[in-house]
Design a protein that fits this description.
The chain is of the alpha/beta class. It contains twelve helices and 23 strands. The mean pLDDT is 97. Bound molecules: shikimate-3-phosphate.
């Protein structure tokens, strides 16, 4: 398996264009596919996960032209115009596997089997299958609640109210999309607010959202979708390892223009502020089509970092950044505690076990908890070998740790970054060479 050696860097500097948002690219492609019009999506993400989504919509008979990574023209076929094939490979993409069944359930086709790679095959899909069945859909998992998912199309869907046991934007999105095909109102209530990209895109596409306190809903069946042409912002979760690299070694600064600043995604910024890091935001504006806020994030080396505690309620706002919080904690004075994050156990890897294994192998003092971890900070981190465990976020964690370590880090399985950020190694190297200049 290809590995990457990341030597320590005395300083990092420069401007990096982080890749396009993965969550929004998936959603834009899926909603464009069932729009009543041809939709142009600019600045899409070209990575393995979004390649899976383009493949999936094409397999459903939707014409997609242009290049991923640039502009795509998606010839929408309308809400009921998909022609699902017998099987679709979702690769490593959990978002695709959890959102697509909602659209497939509303088609007049036979059935479609959704499967994925070994990592996706271990992830829970009953969290969408069960509530979809409660709406009348024929969606079934393998015995352990895992893929493959079998979607028996042609069932009549009826709206209902779903109380989610854990906050999940993927589950919420799936149920709202199913609500477009259902008779009556479909409501979703979450224990804490998760990212709302689907809601924003639905509203932009002309679907009125129902709101009642924390609950969000749609009234179906929807007459049609008119997603406007849109631009995808840069992904906060892909920018995050570079932000943390900047906080650990940025001198004079690491600059990241055009990054999505959706408040339900940027919990890391609040945590960094609590820890005493010097991160600022400039050039705030809004993008058209989905109206996502973006800005330039500027991260400079922090003189000292203080430990902090992450509580359950803020977990959804930085769910994909929690591995990086562990790394920050390894350098922060005191004990950094992450709690209420058992969801990490069912990500692309068991991210509680893998984060603890990686940071411990590099010399950090970190303990595993059932629902998170505790890290005791030290002024420095030794370095060593980190195994990405097939998980893109772990590969990036190991590489950033290498820059801030004493002896460097060899990240094995580094190619996992291809799922969300294929150019990550090149961008880190650019920051290191400009920092050394
Ligand atoms: C995502 C939501 C989150 C996140 C994942 C992408 C999305 O998952 O961890 O990387 O695009 O909606 P959950 O919905 O399972 O929390």
């Amino acid at each position: 398996m290809p590995s990457l050696r990341v030597p320590p860097a005395a300083s990092l500097a420069g401007e990096i264009m982080a890749p396009a948002d993965k969550s929004i690219t998936h959603r834009a492609l899926l909603l464009a596919a069932v729009s009543d019009r041809s939709v142009r999506v600019d600045a899409t993400l070209d990575a393995e996960d979004t390649q899976s989504t383009v493949g999936a919509v094409q397999r459903c008979g939707v014409e997609v032209s242009g290049e991923l990574g640039g502009s795509l023209e998606v010839a929408g076929v309308g809400l009921r115009g998909l022609r699902p094939p017998p099987a679709i490979d979702c690769g490593n993409a959990g978002t695709l596997m959890r959102l697509l069944p909602a659209l497939l359930a509303g088609q007049s086709a036979d059935h479609c089997v959704l499967d994925g790679d070994d990592s996706l095959r271990r992830r829970p899909m009953d969290r969408v299958a069960r509530p979809l069945r409660a709406m009348g859909a024929g969606v079934f998992t393998a015995p352990g609640g895992t893929p493959p998912l079998v979607v028996d199309c042609r069932q009549r869907l009826v709206g209902c109210r779903h109380e989610l046991p854990v906050a999940s934007a993927q589950v919420k999105s799936c149920l709202l999309l199913a609500g477009l095909y259902a008779e009556g109102e479909t409501w979703v209530v979450e224990p804490a607010p998760s990212r709302d990209h689907t809601e924003r895109l639905l509203e932009a596409a002309g679907v009125p959202l129902l709101r009642d306190g924390d609950a969000v809903g749609v009234r179906g069946p929807a007459e049609g979708l008119g997603l406007p042409d849109m631009e995808v912002p840069r992904d906060f979760s892909s920018a995050a390892p570079l932000i943390v690299a900047g906080v650990l070694r940025g001198d004079p600064a690491v600059r990241l223009p055009g990054v999505n600043l959706n408040a339900r995604r940027t919990g890391l910024l609040a945590v960094l502020e609590r820890m005493g890091a010097a991160v600022t935001v400039e050039d705030r504006r809004h993008l058209g089509g989905g109206g996502e806020p973006v800005g330039t994030i500027v991260a400079r080396r922090a003189t000292t970092l203080h430990a902090t505690e992450i509580v359950a309620h803020e977990v959804p706002s930085l769910i994909d950044e929690l591995p990086l919080v562990a790394l920050l904690g390894a350098f922060a004075a005191g004990r950094t505690v992450v709690r209420g994050a058992s969801e990490l156990r069912v990500k692309e890897s068991d991210r509680i076990a893998t984060v603890v294994a990686v940071l411990r192998a590099l010399g950090a003092t970190i303990e595993e908890r059932e629902d998170g971890f505790e890290v005791e900070g030290h002024p420095s981190l030794r370095g060593g070998e980190a195994d990405a465990a097939g998980d893109h976020r772990l590969a990036m964690l190991g590489a950033v740790a290498g820059l801030a370590s004493e002896t460097g880090v060899v990240v094995s399985g580094f190619e996992a970054v291809g799922v969300s950020y294929p150019g990550f190694g090149r961008d880190l190297a650019a920051l290191a060479s400009e920092g050394a200049a």
